[in-house]
Specification:
Blueprint: E1 5-8, H1 17-27, E2 31-35, H2 48-60, E3 64-73, H3 81-98, E4 102-106, H4 114-130, E5 136-140, H5 148-155, E6 162-167, H6 169-173, H7 178-185, E7 189-194, H8 215-225, E8 231-233, H9 246-249
Parallel strand pairs: 1-2, 1-8, 2-3, 3-4, 4-5, 5-6, 6-7, 7-8
InterPro entries: IolE/XylAMocC-like, Xyl_isomerase-like_sf, Xyl_isomerase-like_TIM-brl
Keywords: Isomerase
Organism: Catenulispora subtropica
Length: 258
Amino acid sequence: MNWPLAFSTLGCSGMPLADVTALARSTGWLGLELRAADDEPVHVGLSPEERAAARELLESGGVTVLAVASYVRVARGEIGDEECVAGAVAHAELARDLGAPFVRVFPGAEEPGREADARAVRRLNAIADELPDGVSVLLETHDSHPQGVDIARVLSQVSEKVGAIWDVMHPWRTGEPIAVTRDLLAPYLKHVQVKDVLSPTERTPLPLGAGTVPLGEFYTALWELGYQGWVSLEWESKWHPEAVRLAEALKVKPAFTG
């Protein structure tokens, strides 16, 4: 199966949207995850007019906006429920205005455990109640909840408006087998992120296939699930400036594309 290809603007942080769309068209990676932050062209402070203009530019550029990638941390104890929920809903409204079906959130607990899970469950259910039509919130395998078992433990208690992002690196780097992650995330999976690195501890981005992440096994797992979404490259050069430029990384297509 050939899934359509996307990339996150984390790999080209600060690049104007017109240049992002040109990069997408020139490489064939036609889906976008838009990183939402103050140093990006897309953030919750955009006016209605700015949002409309951004949407027009993206749509006329022939790309598909898949998600707004927020930095809301639903299990974090340092912020209150109201602040967390309001932040997620604001990003969901931005996703709606840009035509994206998803908004990404992180777990982000200081310490994993029952209290962190309870915060995440409570807040995700509250967020689900306030989501604009056509937008879902997706919890990523990341930070305090890196494995499928962690995400499934939370999502089994929340609204169906909440799904999962499988970032292939984090379950793998913490020792969860691909097949286990596959089975645990199966009821919730809406989006996947692909990347490659040298090892679980040396995580500078490498072109797909140049590292040790079991990508072939990952693609097989997606096929077994009947996954129908996009495969998105999250090129973390913002955090690893020594990595090659995103434009170079996009020259290497996933093996399933032939």
